[in-house]
Amino acid sequence: MDKPLKKQCNPSSTGGGGVNFETRVQAAFAxxxxxxxxxPCLPPWPITKMKLQGRFDGFYTDDFIVFTQNxxxxxxxxxxxxxxxxxxxxxxxxxxxx
Length: 98
Prior knowledge:
By secondary structure, the chain is an alpha+beta fold. The protein has a domain at about 15-80. Helix content is about 20%, strand content about 20%. It has 2 helices and 3 strands; from the N terminus they run ααβββ. The protein has helices at about 10-15, 15-35, and strands at about 45-50, 65-70, 75-80. Strands 1-2-3 form a 3-stranded antiparallel beta sheet, with helices on one face. The radius of gyration is 18 Å and the shape is elongated. It starts with 10 loop residues before the first helix and ends in a 17-residue tail after the last strand.
């Protein structure tokens, strides 16, 4: 009798490919912040700070949060990022923010 085959894992998941990709994306945003550039998908304001592991502050994301601030009135806008190699958006998805 043949033994059942073991399930194969994605090499990116088991070999650090996901962590390396996440670090590169975070580094790209850190460079944007240090060079006073704008963050994609946000108003054209400077990036004021980044927070890694946002779960500790009550956000439903653990990769990073980018903060931008309007220099004229101090209004702050956040970009919550969950870094993935690819994404899908479905009707049944829950919002990421409480």
